[in-house]
Amino acid sequence: MRLGFTLLIKNGAAYASRKWSPRHYLGHPANIVRILSDFECDEVAVHNLDPLNQETLDLLGMISKNAFMPLTYFGSIRHVSEGQVVARLGFEKVGLESEWTKNPNLVDDLGRVIGNSSVVLGITYVEDEAGRWRWDWRAKSSDSQPLNELLIRAAELAPGEVRISSASRDGERCGGDINAVKLACKTMDLPVSYQGGVASLEDAATLASAGAAAVYASTFFSIKPPFDAPLITYSKGAKL
Amino acid sequence: MTIAVVLFDQIAFKVRIKVGGKRVLMASSIAILDYGFGNSSTVRQMLMSSGFESAIVQEPEQILSNTHLILPGVGNWSSAAEALQAGGWKDQIRRSVEDGAYVLGICLGMQLLGMSSEEGPGRGLELLPTVTRKLRRENNEPSTHVGWETWSERNTLDLSGRVYYSHGYCMGDVDDRLEPSYSSVFPTIVSSIRFKRIFGVQFHPERSLATGRRLLAAFARSELEA
What we know:
The structure holds two protein chains of two kinds. Chain A is α/β, with parallel strands linked by helices. Helix content of chain A is 33%, strand content 32%.
């Protein structure tokens, strides 16, 4: 099982997130990635809230140069050319979030250029009593599409991996959504990765035993209780 | 005999000698081929972290004097094969191999060392008699092989360790002459091959932390020759 670090980028700076909003400033993204390289982190997923302009591309290039582990990029990929540019900067996987629901052809088109195994479909959702509903982490809005239907649609597009993320749990250290992982693994014959609420290595191990091929965390690795002090750490422990 | 280039720097050094028109390797001069389908800068960065200088080359003619060629690869077979052919890379790489250059193919770059692929039309570099195939459920292989595994290098070099894979296709029709090693989790998936001075790895050494660093350094030091 891969245990990854999620890095939220806003205005060129790295943050630990809560409900996918910047919560704690962590530092320069390239510096964080360098520290994580030294810790032999399995993977880093960059979630970019900034526009994908030259300034952002320069920053992504700097991140890539400091990373000796795999990188995944999420954030505002609307065209194949944008995904290709990010991949050429050294991001092994390019994630599509709201883009793939609006333009399913983008998955195949991007796969033809960077390879399907390098395309990750992201589904961020919020939980309430009635179920789990799609939530756009960049627009911060829900559109009432149920998670199970999105999983079926995602599987039909045959990406390399599907990443599900609970916005309700993000940054809360309340434990992962094991039922969502089980649902995703039952619905799809694709690698499933999970993000949201991880509070311990035991949590990550439980999510892995539910079928997650990868588990990502941000707050767990970077914000230390009881004073919520920023401190980058990373360890898989013996069990993982 | 003419000495073509002699360069020294702090850690890496490059010496190429021509004997009767053939390049004879004294030490490494590494070219990372930027044909549009790989993380060239990442490979260069990893080599640099091991103390080896390398050049990212964007024109096939620029590899003529290089003793070591690295063919990275992230992408689709057909598009990449077309880029190699149309860009004039294929002939130049084959010529360099005939001249004795060392070649390392990474991921799709490894697959492109072969003949063809189930992923789509297009001919590879045709340096090896292999056909790339889709990962197969009937072999208990995943649709996409992603993640970290321990790689056991089957030869005497101390290169084994954790490596990172991300692929949906792998090299098929690999016979023992190519000295294949296999995935430690999915034993039908070829992890690496080695044939004379041609080496290929399905995983990504440029993203495989310490193991990747050791492997790229061994390639740069010409220690991978079969």
